[in-house]
Amino acid sequence: MNADQSDLLRLLQNLIRLGTIAEIKGAKARVRLGPTLTTEWLKWATRRAGSTRTWSAPTVGEQVIVLSPGGDLTHGIILPALYSQEFDAPNTSDSIHTKHYPDGAVVQYDHAAHALTATLPGGTATITADKVTSNAPSTICTSDLTVMKNLIVMQAATIHGTTALNGGVNAKADAAGGVAMAVQGTIKANEDMLAGTISRAVRNHDGHARRHRAQPDGPGPPAPVRDRHYHHADGFAHPAPPLRLRSTRTDRPALNSATQLRIYAATPTPVSVRYGTMQSSELE
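User: That's the sequence. What structure does it adopt?
Assistant: C-alpha cells below.
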C-alpha cells in the first residue's frame, strides 16, 4: 500500500469515530478516540440552536460519535450520545420518557399510565408567570402551604383541625341573604362579644360576668329580672337574695306596665323579662 492509499484509508476511518468525552468547556469538548488520540476542541450538537435554544452539555466519560467531514478530525462534530457500561439506560420501558440528573432528580412521563412526575432530592421549584391555572378535579398538597397574598375561595371551603386566625374575621351573608356564620358548638372568647348593641359579657363590681344590653338615650324597655336561684361557688343552688327596685320616676306613683324600672341584682344569674303591676311599697 502506497502513501496515497494509506492517507485515503486514514481519512475514511476518521469519517465516523466512536469515543468518550475527555474534557468539557462550554459549547465545545474534546473526545478521546483511543489510548493515544484525543481530538481538538470540537462543537457538540444540540437539538435546537436558533431563536429556540436548548442546553444539555455532555459529561466526562459519556460515549459519543464524532463525525468528521472529509475525514478531517479538526473539523469534526460531536454527536451525543450512546449508552455504555459506565452510563447504562435508566429505564427500559416502551411507554416511559424519563430524564435523570446527577443529583438524583428525575422528570418522567408515562404515556401508558398518563402520569407525569418530577422528583427533586432537595432545593426548590419555581414557576414565574402572570397567571397559573390548574384544571384538575382535585389538587392535593401533602405538606405546608404558604400563601403570601390574598386567598380567594369562590365556593365552599372545609377545614379539618384547629385553625388559628391572626387578624380579624369578616363574615357577610351572600346576596340571597341567610346566615352569615353558623357555629355548631361552643364559642369561647376572652374578651367581650357584641351583637349589635348587645354586649355578651360585662364585668360587675365584684368581677363576675353578666349579660348587659347597651342602654340607649332616653326611656327604654323594661329591664330584665333575674332568675329565682343562682349557683354559688360551692356548687349548690341557693335562693336568690332580695332585689332592690328603683323607679325612674321621682314621685313614686303606683306602677303599671308603662313604668320604667332599673333592677339591680346581687348575683350574676341570667334574667328574664316580667311585665305587670307592682305596689309602690315594693320600691326603695
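Helices lie at 3-14.
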